[in-house]
Predict the structure of tRNA (guanine-N(7)-)-methyltransferase.
Amino acid sequence: ADHSFNYPARPEDVDWRSLYPSMGDDQQVQFADIGCGYGGFLVTLGEMFPEKLAIGMEIRVKVSDYVIDRIAALRLKNANEATTYQNIACIRTNAMKYLPNYFQKSQLEKMFFLYPDPHFKRAKHKWRIINQALLSEYAYVLRKGGLVYTMTDVEDLHTWIVSHMTQHPLFERLSDEEANADPITPKLYQSSEEGAKVVRNKGEHFLAIFRRI
Ligand code: SAM
């Protein structure tokens, strides 16, 4: 059923090697794309950071299946190329519920929330992928100095994210100068399917990056 998940009891139980067959013994997932959608940005991460393992987490079965197939096809097609896509993978899960089941304390270096679904109604606030209770969980799985990248085309949601993240004692926002100096920043606008759509429609994007203190 769409609402049942197989999830690990603890991070030690995750069989990462089944997701990244050629990973090194000392390697750990360090990048997480939360709500990765169709995986466009995940593929970009794989190309930009060949030495890092990145995971996409997606709640919709059909969408995560699509990304899993997409990665398998990329691996097959590029087996003898410089970029082999062995460093990216996707799991179907509810990232709002199960993050600490997958990641150890301080494991992650970067988390991405690109075009998360906005929910405007106050009653739905607790379902938002960025909410005050969840921020402490994100802070837990992120290492000190780690970064949370957020991008949305919904200004209200951006304002809301910025106010909650900056209120949280464990996060501080990067200055515009710092954000613009990050090589990932230009990719956030169009690498993902949702970002590309906003660009096509000439919509606005709102970016904010936060550091785990
Ligand atoms: N990040 C992608 C992009 O930029 O193209 C997808 C953006 S889409 C608007 C939001 C995605 O988040 C959807 O694919 C949705 O299924 C997923 N999502 C929503 N809640 C989620 C959750 N709790 N855990 C994992 N994925 C979630």
Notes: The radius of gyration is 16 Å. The chain has a mean pLDDT of 92.
